[in-house]
Design brief:
368 residues, alpha/beta, 13 helices, 18 strands, binds uridine-5'-diphosphate
């Protein structure tokens, strides 16, 4: 059997590895980019700092099958991600949690709010902001307005070009109000950064005698026939935009290098009340890279325009899902063509979810 995998990000690399390794079949994997690992691509710069070219990637999962799969290809450190938010100049923890209360309010008010929150919610409960706004108590109403305005409104408008109500609730629910003193961004059982980088991890997945890799190669340049095609590129592009273009958000990173050990106190600082960029990444924190210089990236969100920038995020809202469903229906008429990944499925997958999806595509394949 001859298989073609389009895209050498996580989704493509996982499916290529499984087909080569478990089915013993030949795989050609191509990517139009000059490098592996898609938007998880990283590299060491001249200072020895591991740079995430397309913004911070922190691996986190509670899915045992994903963890057991991925750890075969590299070791991870025990990095536990935290995000600091700059709220009108006050540096505090994001997601908004019980510690944040005491950073942004006078102590007596913070204590009153904490008590009311703990009367209403169980400890460790995560409450999406759009749900948290349905409060009857006057104090909690004020708190909900504060969190909405100071954490979500401007940041979401910068990130998505619209206010929080105009995108799927699941987007802001990723960063809930957290009734907890745990300042970590994720509570998953497994989290960390691959010690040799994501690119190396993907390289290891593709290091198999049955796998042939071609970078700088567009799908249009490849001629078959193939017994199966696994397509992780944009599904609307695959079908020549027949029903119209699916909207995406893009991101532009402005890199800066400084002649000092650290630029900021944390790997990621969000700016939910000020600045044109959404957040600043400082890369040396992830692997504890030692250098007396540092590299940061300011993250600017923008809408995706064909030929101008790259697709980063599908935009989760109903009209876009309706359009995607037309492509999905059409894809079902094709035999032996499988779509997966953020762009192939038009889904806002984290890395672990993209891997889980590739594992399940492979499982289905074995069943037929
Ligand atoms: N968000 C926000 N303020 C923040 C952090 C997140 O409004 O300080 C919202 C925003 O809409 C963002 C979403 O929550 O797009 C999800 O954030 P996450 O950090 O998960 O986004 P990612 O890292 O995937 O870009």
């Amino acid at each position: 059997m001859k298989n073609l995998v389009v895209g050498a990000g996580f989704s493509g690399a996982v499916i290529a590895n499984l087909i080569a390794n478990e089915l013993g079949e030949d795989v050609l994997i191509i990517d139009k980019k000059p490098h592996l690992a898609g938007n998880c691509h990283d590299f060491r710069d001249k200072n020895g700092i591991m740079i995430h070219k397309y913004g911070s990637h922190i691996f986190h999962t509670s899915d045992e099958s994903v963890w057991n799969f991925i750890k075969q290809f590299g070791n991870f450190n025990n990095y536990q991600h935290k995000v600091i938010g700059d709220i009108d100049g006050v540096r505090t923890s994001i997601p908004f949690n019980l510690n944040t209360l005491f950073d942004v309010f006078p102590e007596d008010l913070a204590m009153r709010l904490e008590k009311k929150l703990l009367d209403l919610f169980e400890l460790e409960k995560k409450v999406p902001i759009l749900e948290f706004q349905n409060q009857n108590d006057e104090d909690l109403k004020l708190l909900a307005n504060f969190i909405y305005e100071k954490i979500f409104l401007y940041y979401t408008t910068k990130q998505w070009g619209v206010s929080p109500e105009k995108i799927d609730n699941a987007v802001t629910a990723r960063v809930p109000v957290f009734i907890s003193k745990d300042n970590r961004y994720f509570q998953d059982k497994y989290q960390g950064i691959p010690i040799d980088g994501y690119t190396k991890l993907v390289e290891n997945m593709l290091n198999h005698p049955n796998i042939d890799l071609k970078l700088n190669t567009d799908f249009k340049e490849i001629s078959g026939p193939f017994d199966r095609i696994f397509y992780t590129g944009a599904i609307d592009e695959f079908f020549g935009y027949e029903f119209g273009q699916l909207p995406y958000r893009s991101v532009n990173f402005k890199f800066e290098e400084y002649d000092k050990e650290f630029y900021q106190e944390n790997a990621v600082v969000n700016y939910p009340t000020s600045e044109d960029f959404t957040r600043i990444h400082e890369y040396k924190y992830y692997l504890g890279d030692k250098s007396n210089r540092t590299v940061i990236a300011k993250e600017f969100s923008e809408s995706f325009e064909l030929g101008k920038n790259e697709r980063f995020y599908p935009i989760p809202k109903k009209e876009n899902f309706d359009l995607y469903n037309k492509y999905l229906e059409k894809s079902k008429t094709l035999k032996n063509v499988y779509f997966l990944g953020r762009l192939g499925d038009y889904k806002y997958y984290d890395m672990d979810k993209a891997i889980a999806r590739a594992l399940s595509v492979f499982k289905e394949l074995k069943c037929v």
